[in-house]
Design brief:
CATH architecture of the largest domain: 3-Layer(aba) Sandwich
Strand content: 15-25%
Structural class: alpha/beta
Number of domains: 3
Distance between the termini: 31 Å
Largest sheet: 6 strands, mixed
Shape: elongated
Oligomer: single chain
Order of helices and strands: HHHHEEHEHEHEEEHHEHEHEHEEHE
Number of strands: 13
Strand order of the largest sheet: 4-3-5-12-6-13
Number of helices: 13
CATH superfamily of the largest domain: Periplasmic binding protein-like II
Length: 323
């Protein structure tokens, strides 16, 4: 970044930096103006002042929108970081009242995070913070860090492998259990909460649930079986466990799923739960956020809600903070 650019940035007022950030995110002057509650002519005039101050076009109009120049790309991160830190500093000195707050929080959630925590969170907010809005953002796992880094998301929750440059808290762990049709369980002699015999388990027709957070070669069940030179016969692979309540009844299929998925499934179908005849790696759930939000009182209150959730299917005894 050249000396002229640095001098230009040092002399800019905060509103111009906000406009730059809005155009960079929206790729549109009119959309940026709407985002900042400005008129489009005012936004265009401000962009011209910004261009003159930095000696660069910053954004070039194309068919797909306002594309940033190389200079704009190089300063976007520092500008966004600076705006976030200013906002965090302001929030730090402010009180937060959940009953009156109208803030919006954006969540990234893996399947187990979404299925287990979002419903519980909304019940809490309905009584404790009815004006807070939640948006669950769908994104590839490999994009989570960038979305947190650049402020597109406030939290990530689920089974995650994420850089230690973020704040991370292990909030729960759980084991895997076997689910099958109640009628079929009776036919093969599998009682509720019993340990299913190893040879029987291998001989059954399995549904494998491979979520975004579970690569095919790293499913805890198959990893454990490989250690014993065992292999199950998988006849159906699914991306979500939530549909099992419509698949297992009336079939000879079995599914091995995380503990928290079991209660919602059994509420919708007549299923039997059995225990595995071997141990697997536990499923650990992390709550992740950016360090700049550590002192944000509203953000801190939200973290407390996740920590306080009563999760009957989880082992909460091993919780620890890292990062």
């Amino acid at each position: 970044m050249g000396e002229k650019t640095m001098n230009g940035l040092n002399n800019l007022d905060l509103n111009l930096l906000k406009l730059f950030d809005a155009i960079y995110r929206e790729r549109s002057v009119s959309a940026a103006a709407d985002r900042l509650n400005m008129t489009q002519p005012a936004a265009s005039n401000a962009l011209n002042r910004l261009r003159q101050a930095l000696g660069d076009q910053l954004f070039v109009r194309t068919r797909s929108g306002m594309e940033p120049t190389l200079l704009a790309q190089s300063i976007a991160g520092p500008v966004q970081q600076g705006l976030k830190e200013i906002g965090a500093s302001i929030l730090e000195g402010m009180s937060f009242c959940p009953e009156e707050s109208e803030r919006s929080f954006t969540m990234l959630a893996t399947d187990v995070g979404e299925e287990t925590y979002i419903a519980a969170l909304m019940k809490i907010l309905e009584t404790s913070a009815p004006n807070i809005d939640i948006r669950v953002l769908e994104a590839p796992l490999e994009d989570y860090e960038n979305l947190l880094e650049f402020g597109y998301a406030d939290f990530a929750i689920g089974r995650l492998e994420i850089s230690d440059r973020f704040m991370r808290e292990h909030i729960a762990s759980c084991c895997y259990s076997v689910l099958l049709c109640a009628q079929y369980a009776e036919e093969i002699g599998v009682a509720e909460d019993s340990v299913i015999p190893y040879e029987l388990y291998l001989s059954l027709r399995h549904v494998n649930v491979l979520t975004r957070a579970t690569p095919a070669n790293r499913h805890p069940v198959d990893m454990a079986l490989r250690q014993m030179n065992g292999q199950r016969r998988v006849v159906l692979t699914l991306p979500h466990a939530s549909v099992l309540s419509g698949i297992l009844p009336g079939t000879t299929l079995v599914a091995t799923v995380p503990g928290p998925a079991i209660e919602p499934l059994r509420a919708r179908a007549n299923l039997v739960q059995a225990r595995l005849p071997f141990e697997t790696e536990m499923l650990h759930v992390l709550l992740v956020w950016h360090r700049r939000q550590q002192l944000d009182k509203g953000h801190s209150w939200m973290r407390d809600q996740f920590r306080a959730m009563p999760m009957t299917s989880w082992d909460l005894s091993d919780m620890r903070a890292t990062g």
